[in-house]
Amino acid sequence: MGWHGGPPPGRGPGWRHDRFTRREEEKLERKVSDIVLLRRLMTYLAPYKRRVIALTSLMIGAAIMSLVTPLMTKIVLDRFIPAGIEAGKTSVLNIWLLAMVALLLAQFGLSYGRQYLIAWVGNKTIYQLREEMVSQIQEMSIRYFAEGETGRIMSRVTNDAEQLSYFLGSGLVSVVSDTIAVVGALLLMFTLSLQLTLLSFAVIPVMFLVPFFMRRRIRKAWRQTRVKIAGMTSVLQETVSGMKVVQAFTRESRDMETFNAVNLETVRARLRATLMAGLFRIGVGLAQVVGTVALLWYSAIQIVNGTVTFGTFVAFQTLLMNFFRPLMTIANFYNDFQSAMAGAERVFELLDTEREVEEAPEGELVELGEVRGEIVYDHVTFGYDPRTPVLRDINLVIRPKEKVALVGPTGAGKTTMINLLCRFYDPQEGSITLDGYDLRKISLRSLRKQMGIVLQDPFLFQGTIKENIKYGRPEATDEEVIEAAKAVNAHEFIMKLPQGYETVVREGATNLSVGQRQLITFARALLVDPKILILDEATSSVDPYTELIIQKGLERLLKDRTAIIIAHRLSTVRNADKIVVIDNGRIVEMGRHEELLEKGGLYTRLYMRQFRDLEEPEELTARQRGAGEPAQRPSMGRRPRGAGPGALRGKMMELRRLIKEREAEGHDVREFKELSRSIFAALRRGDVNSASRKLDEAIERLRNLSNKPQT
Amino acid sequence: MGNFIRLMKYVARYWYLFALGLGLIVIYRYLMVVPGLATRRVLNALTPPFDPDEVFRILPRAALTIIGASILSSVVNFVQMYLQSYVSQKTIYNLRNDLFNALIQKSFSFYDRSRVGDIVSRVTSDVDRVRRMTSFWINQMISIVAGFVIWIGVLLSINPWMTILCLLPAPFVFLITNRYRKLSRPIFAEQRRVFAEMNIFLQQNIVGTRVVRIFGQEKREKKRFTGINRRYFDLQLEMAKIRALYPGLNTLIMGVVTALIYWLGGRLIIVTHGTPMEFKWGDLMIFVQGMSSLMAPLRFLSFIVGSYTEAMAAAARIFEILDTEPEVKDKPDAVPLPPVKGEVVFENVTFGYDPDRPVLKNINLRVRPGETVAILGPTGSGKSTLLYLIPRFYDVTSGRILIDGYDIRDVKLKSLREQIGIALQDIYIFSATIRENIAYGKPDATMEEIVAAAKAAQIHDFIMSLPDGYDTVVGERGITLSGGQKQRITIARTLLKDPRILIFDDTTSFVDTETEYKIQKALEALLKGRTAFIVTQRLSAIKNADKIVVLKDGEIVECGTHEELLAKDGIYATIYRTQFAPREEILARRMGGGE
Ligand SMILES: Nc1ncnc2c1ncn2[C@@H]1O[C@H](COP(=O)(O)OP(=O)(O)OP(=O)(O)O)[C@@H](O)[C@H]1O
Ligand SMILES: Nc1ncnc2c1ncn2[C@@H]1O[C@H](COP(=O)(O)OP(=O)(O)OP(=O)(O)O)[C@@H](O)[C@H]1O
Ligand SMILES: [Mg+2]
Ligand SMILES: [Mg+2]
């Protein structure tokens, strides 16, 4: 994976498309041998042995029948008509007509049965394959979703499977019947006329080889066309999906160019293919006309000589067709076979993708009932790519009913911890246990049943809001749904929507605000009433006020549950029983809020950052306390101590007061606001002298300002 | 009919090629008959008792005629097919470009309403249906009519009774085909519907696979799929039955009629034997050939009629896209917005996605150039909506928005949006390299600029830690990145655009406080002299804003500086206190332990 050194951005339209084409071509490379694939495919036909045998015999029957029709023509021309002329009566033809109609009816029956069975066998196998593929999609490694793109996985289930079904239904079986048809036609031709047969063979190379070789190039041209069309579709798909970004960045004209280019390419490819196909048709036509004329000429001589009958000549023309058509199919079989095998390979590749997280063998598998909710990470090391660990040697004990918060810089590995706990991935080293059972021993179903999870990325299904909330427990009553919605403070806004709980969530949930989506996923997790509740940034886009309300409710809701909470807004997590600080894949600190603040490490830093003003002069705090005089100044290691803080603070207060005053008087004080900010900055840097100087200056100027006449 | 004419207008650009193609079809149709006639002459000569001399006299001429006519007809056919293909490809090329051009101008509300899959299929499948019609429909019609006329003329001149026999199957073939089409059409439609359903199912289950698994709903989803899968299988079989029956019936009828031709022709040969009006073998054979040539197009005819209706339905869907005017578009007299200082004014702005349900009510807000405005408010209060109005993603329902005194509806959209950088709350990462993603709004940016933007967004170090650095391809929708990483990439993307007016819609919600602080520091320098709107749920980030706007239920309930709002002791002060309550405690601790 990974396309190194892609073209620099802006090298012209179509970069995305180039990459697509390259990938598409990569797709054509084959890795598994045909025999292996074929053998595996056959196992899908095995359950329908009887039908496959019936189908084969019908096809053989049809192949033989196809030989009888030209024979019947020969007979009527050579026997019945001359006999009629001789006898001077026409009634002899009636018997022939009856026989012919009977034959045609039989052919009709055969063909009906054959087509029906082809459809049955082919579609049944595809049905089976699709069922398996969907099961696989539900269980295969999450990793696969990160790499494969949605469209590509989808096309395996839809297009590739379809192609296979055709091959299994008719392609494979028809080889048998086609061979019979070819051999039968050949034998019949020999018995009818040796000379004509030999002549035909003289023209076979022309009639047969030309198209055969040309066809390969045409195939390639058509494949190119398909690749181009697929490329255009992918550009279209992505542009339409990201249209809001396109417009926000006024990329319209550039994207139009890109599309125009891929559009033109498809047209060109298509016209090229049409050209090839046209030339091919001319080639075939010419070869055929040479053959027909030679046959006509030679037959005429033979008829004149009396060595060939008229009927033989007519029958021969049909027989030649009966000979060539299946021969072409057989010749093309290899190509069809190849593309079917390519499809098979992609289908099996999907079916064979690692499940990575496998269920334990029957004997060791544990079905969990009610759990206590004790979770232990024991020396866990994990990386999405095993060579670059994202989590390193994680040790963590979460006791039943404990509320644990995971905090840390972005990209530290918090979500990854959760991914492991849900067993989306298994750790490379160490283990995770729930109630003492290794996660790898617990059946996935019973494991996940214990958990209610709010993912960082709030995914909602297409359907109503109610269906979405009920997703994890479809049998829940409306009251329960409402209760869950109320618990997360979502009820109110849901009721304000046009159809309330029945409002349909649009694709991408665009008709809900981001916070609203989060609240719905939150309600969805609560409704399953899990023993373990995991919240990954469940309220990051929710306003602090709503969050506070939720939190109050949560205390009650979380009472009997183990909870893992990830949040950057630390006000959310300070009440946790245990706060785990993760940095760069390691646990760097752990403890209660107060303990961690004592330590003064990463947590303290992250925590302080939310109250940025703590590093600024404290008049604000003072005001909040309602105290008139400046509060005692807390000390921070980075700030110079004893640099006349009292005096500075007083001046700062004065400055602010003056700014307000002048503003109220209608003066333009923006400059001073700017100034006061830069003074804060200077203070923070510890540059007390310059700060003090600037303060004096500013206060002086502000005082003077009031004396000047106002503008 | 209106749609048909409109489609034909697309074709009309190439009318001379199109007309040429039609002319060639008639010629081709005629040339196709010639070899048959030549063969007939030879075969007639061969009718016993034959005269060898005459056979050998006719043979070379017939051979030459056959070869000549065949060569000529395949060349004519080739030219005609190519022309036809050229015209139809050019037509759909233009049509697709027009469609894309229309799509790219559609306003957000259009995309709010539409499904991506539906739009894509209109540009691909529907256009293809139209192509089939423009390339086949008219051509086939002409071809069929010409073929019919020519063949009937030829056959009539030989024997009227036999000609009638040849035409005998016509009504049956037509009726059977028609019935076939009528029966299969609803099944086809249903198949398409079920197939689309299957696609939606797959798409949802692939994108949402984590949710499915977490909630242990695999069984239920699987059952749903089996239902769809089963239905599809049943439909396929139903279709197969019809497909095996009706065309098979046609073959049967044509076979029987062929047998009848031999029968009647045989009788004619027997009866007329030795008379001057002798019916010869070649005559018999040409009727056999003539019958299949007459009937073959009939089997298409019904489908050609069908493809017309289908193509017209497709055309209607296409024109629907072309015709729905973008709700937001340039006025005819729109002027380009000159480079702005960045004053943004909302005057009595009311807006609702559905005009009956206003989301924003009577908003008044004046933002001076260079000011930073923070917007706060409960979930769903309309913060994002307010921001969407500035680059005119939606038009206000009433009131107006002015930038530097220009009503934004009076200026050219492009010139407006070029001066505004917006980082949307809904993150969209293209499946491309990180570099391409950051440079999205400025594809010709130099590497230095890209790195500078990434540094400001505090994402540079992370990118450098990746094996391929800036050339790392991120998965679909950035799936291989953490939440905060995605957000920082969108911040970098916005910064790189370097606009006068910057909008950040909650783009640091997944970013930790430390990193956010650094971003803020970097922004402080970058925002100098620029107008900025920032939505965030973290008060720490906005304390220094020049103006804080608190929205509630679509109304501005508070507006002012941090100090002013605290003094006011309203919602802001309440939120502030709840979030900052712990602050007191820190102070207390410090005082206790620190000094
Ligand atoms: N599916 C994936 N494949 C490869 N790498 C991944 C994948 N998901 C995450 N990563 C990488 O693993 C690291 C940890 O990501 P994780 O999502 O655990 O971070 P996080 O702590 O949750 O961050 P945030 O607070 O931003 O959500 C990041 O560097 C990220 O790029
Ligand atoms: N495209 C849309 N179509 C219809 N309704 C919408 C659409 N987008 C948003 N809404 C509705 O408009 C209201 C305001 O949404 P908006 O996204 O502006 O909220 P917000 O203040 O940004 O919330 P958040 O903090 O959660 O992001 C919500 O009730 C939402 O359901
Ligand atoms: Mg995360
Ligand atoms: Mg929003």
Write up what this structure looks like:
The complex is a heterodimer of chains A (711) and B (595). Chain A has 711 residues and is of the alpha/beta class. Chain A folds into 4 domains: 29-192 and 329-356, Up-down Bundle (ABC transporter transmembrane region fold), CATH 1.20.1560; 194-307; 375-606, Rossmann fold (3-Layer(aba) Sandwich), CATH 3.40.50.300; 611-619 and 640-707. Helix content of chain A is 64%, strand content 8%. In chain A, helix 4 packs parallel to helix 10 (310-352). The longest helix of chain A has 54 residues, at 252-305. The two termini of chain A are 68 Å apart. With 595 residues, chain B is α/β, with parallel strands linked by helices. Chain B folds into 3 domains: 2-323, ABC transporter type 1, transmembrane domain (ABC transporter transmembrane region fold), CATH 1.20.1560; 329-419 and 502-510 and 536-595, P-loop containing nucleotide triphosphate hydrolases (Rossmann fold, 3-Layer(aba) Sandwich); 424-498, P-loop containing nucleotide triphosphate hydrolases (Rossmann fold), CATH 3.40.50.300. Chain B has a 6-stranded mixed beta sheet, with helices on both faces. A 4-stranded antiparallel beta sheet of chain B has the order 2-1-4-5, covered by helices on one side. In chain B, helix 5 (116-158) packs antiparallel against helix 6 (160-167), helix 6 packs across helix 10 (281-323) and helix 14 (447-456) crosses helix 16. The radius of gyration of chain B is 37 Å and the shape is elongated. The model of chain B has no long low-confidence stretch (mean pLDDT 84). The chains are: A alpha/beta (711), B alpha/beta (595). At the A-B interface, helix 1, helix 3, helix 4, helix 5 and helix 6 of A face helix 2, helix 3, helix 4, helix 5 and helix 7 of B. One magnesium ion is lined by residues 383-384, 425, 505-506 of chain B. Residues 414-415, 456, 536 of chain A line the site of one magnesium ion (MG).
Please name the defining characteristics of this protein:
heterodimer, A: 711 residues, alpha/beta, ABC transporter transmembrane region fold, Rossmann fold, 4 domains, 6-stranded mixed sheet, 4-stranded antiparallel sheet, 23 helices, 12 strands, elongated, disordered N terminus, B: 595 residues, 3 domains, binds adenosine-5'-triphosphate, binds magnesium ion
